Amino acid sequence: MNTSTDRIEKQILLKAPRSRVWRALSNAEEFGNWFGVNLTGKQFVAGQSVQGNITYPGYEYLVMDVHVERVEPEHHLSWRWHPAAVDITVDYSPEPTTLVVFELTEVASGTLLRVVESGFDQLPAGRREEAFRMNNGGWEEQMANIEQHVTKG
């Protein structure tokens, strides 16, 4: 892991074909199944936003809202969002967003998935450290979630 406070970098070797991992990332409904958000019937399309209710216990009151930046089938998916936007009394829209990038690389034993979330240093000072801490832990959990999702029978 990079020790920078501006970016979180995680990677995992998934014992699944790249096409399978891509489907888990790019199919919004399937993505929601492992990520913990209800995105039924929605697609990730560059230039468009996707919203859905979080399904993770204790956070069901939250809506995940991402603006899709780039979609390159079986290689790259990226979006922008407001990290750790967990207080429904706060309007996060004036704040800068962070960029989340998923990159897939085919390797002999499966697919290497790399996730980088960057832009934390641009967040308001009062939220920066907590947003970084929450998302760093969150991406650890999500790497385990996608691994379980793509490798289950």
What is the succession of H and E elements? EHHEEEEEEH
Number of helices: 3
The average pLDDT is 94
End-to-end separation: 30 Å
Q: In total, how many domains does the architecture comprise?
A: 1
Q: Give the class-level CATH name.
A: Alpha Beta
CATH fold label: Alpha-D-Glucose-1,6-Bisphosphate, Chain A, domain 4
**Shape, per Cα inertia axes:** globular
CATH superfamily: START domain
Strand order, largest beta sheet: 1-7-6-5-4-3-2
Q: What structural class do helix, strand and pairing data support?
A: alpha+beta
Estimated radius of gyration: 15 Å
Q: Spans of 5+ residues with little confidence (pLDDT < 50)? A: none
Number of strands: 7
Largest sheet: 7 strands, antiparallel
Summarize the structure.
The protein is 29% helix and 33% strand. With 153 residues, the protein is an alpha+beta fold. It has a seven-stranded antiparallel β-sheet, covered by helices on one side.
